């Protein structure tokens, strides 16, 4: 069996607000790559719920946060389709992403 690691390092200010975030992924050749935001979800099969960590730095512009969330919504449709094979629900998730883009003024 082989193991690999993905790590996220967060530097906090005195109020525990992220100042900087870097991530590493050994197999992807990523080392100390800076990012302004991260969203991590894990499935707890004992409690049957998603556990999440959402972090962004003070420097994350609101317009980029909107784009980040939009791209996550789009990717959820793709992930759902690959996981379940249910294209109709995946397409519905993509429609939600399109509506989000319009309502958040990412595009008209």
Top keywords for this entry?
Gliding motility protein GldC; 2 domains; two-stranded antiparallel sheet; 2 helices; single chain; 108 residues; 34% strand; three-stranded antiparallel beta sheet; alpha+beta
Largest sheet: 3 strands, antiparallel
Instruction: List the helices and strands in order.
Output: EEEEEHH
Work out the count of structural domains: 2
| Integer-rounded radius of gyration | 17 Å
Q: What gap, in angstroms, lies between the N and C termini?
A: 49 Å
Give the total of beta strands. 5
- Low-confidence spans: none
Strand content: 25-35%
| Total helical elements | 2
Amount of helix: 25-40%
Shape: globular
Structural class: alpha+beta
Chain-averaged pLDDT: 96
Strand order of the largest sheet: 1-2-3
Topology diagram in text:
Blueprint: E1 6-12, E2 18-25, E3 30-35, E4 37-44, E5 49-56, H1 62-84, H2 87-103
Antiparallel strand pairs: 1-2, 2-3, 4-5
Structural commentary:
By secondary structure, the chain is of the alpha+beta class. It folds into two domains: about 1-60, no CATH class; about 60-105. Helix content is about 35%, strand content about 35%. The chain contains two helices and five strands. It has a three-stranded antiparallel sheet with strand order 1-2-3, with no helix packed on it. A two-stranded antiparallel ribbon has the order 4-5. Helix 1 runs antiparallel to helix 2 (about 85-105). The longest helix is centred in the C-terminal third of the chain and has 23 residues, at about 60-85. The radius of gyration is 17 Å and the shape is globular. The termini are far apart. This is Gliding motility protein GldC. InterPro entries: Motility-assoc_prot_GldC. It comes from Chryseobacterium vrystaatense.
